[in-house]
Amino acid sequence: MSKKVKELPEDIEVIGPGQMLAEARDAMGLTQKEVAAKLNFRVALVDEIEHELFDKSLPDTFNRGYLKNYAKLVGVSEQDVLASYEMLGVAAKQRTEMQSFSKITEKQAQNSRLMWITYLILAALVASSILYYLQDIPSKAATKTVANTTNSKANTDETAQPTEKAEELPEQSNYQPESTLNTVKGKTSDNVDDKFINQPEEGDIAQAIVPDNSIEPVLEIITPVESSDITAIFSFAGDCWVNIYDGNGERIAWGIKKAGYVMELKGVAPFKVTVGKPELVAIDFNGESIDMSKFNVGNIAKFTLPESP
């Protein structure tokens, strides 16, 4: 099923938490060493945060705590910094998927090269076999010529000896007794009768050729499943981070949306929505307005559309 996300032709730029904190620190005229002294951090830790090199061996709570303390010091919104930190995980996942795809493509290319090498080796073997056969033909022909020459000389010697004896044979040398002729004729007729007797009948041959059509084919029918889309319109009064999944578990919208931005989504319900600042978002779900005043101002709101009764 196809999903469409209609957005204005305005590029959305996602800034990492380290860049946000580093720019705020430079604006306040602080150095990394001064920030480390005020927060009781190591200078190397401050540099790693600004370059977004987080220690994966530590629990996620520690990294969030470092970011919140740093954000308070330089006067940056904690929610924006944490939202940007969450986006780093999404980007890392996408990079992992791209790396997996590139590895699969590289493996397919390697297999293709191996196949071509195999084909070249087989072609070389076939060509060498043909060449060997062509080279072997003249030697066999020469051997046969020598053998035929030897046999012809022997036959010439044998035919020269009985020539003298052939003159002494009687003129009736071609005479054959009738008994011998009858014997030969009888053997010939017997052989002919045996051939006709042992021949199979045409009916047996036709019966052996007729295929067995007693097995009927089985036809399997698969009916496609159809589903309808749900429409939701998000209007943003200020910069706000969102993360939305549809009913199939696929992400259909994410990132920081700027003030005045209008986003229309279509997909399979229910929508799982996460909003960084619910007071800055107005939602129209299938023609009905969603009450956003029930969420705390300045806190992240997580809810599902349509809302459960």
TrEMBL record:
Domain annotation HTH cro/C1-type: ranges: 21-40
UniProt entry keywords in alphabetical sequence: Membrane, Transmembrane, Transmembrane helix
Comp. bias regions, Low complexity: 144-154
GO molecular function annotation: DNA binding
Record region (Disordered): 144-191
Biased composition (Polar residues): 171-186
Superkingdom, taxonomy of origin: Bacteria
TM region(s), chain numbering: 114-134
Protein name in UniProt: DUF4115 domain-containing protein
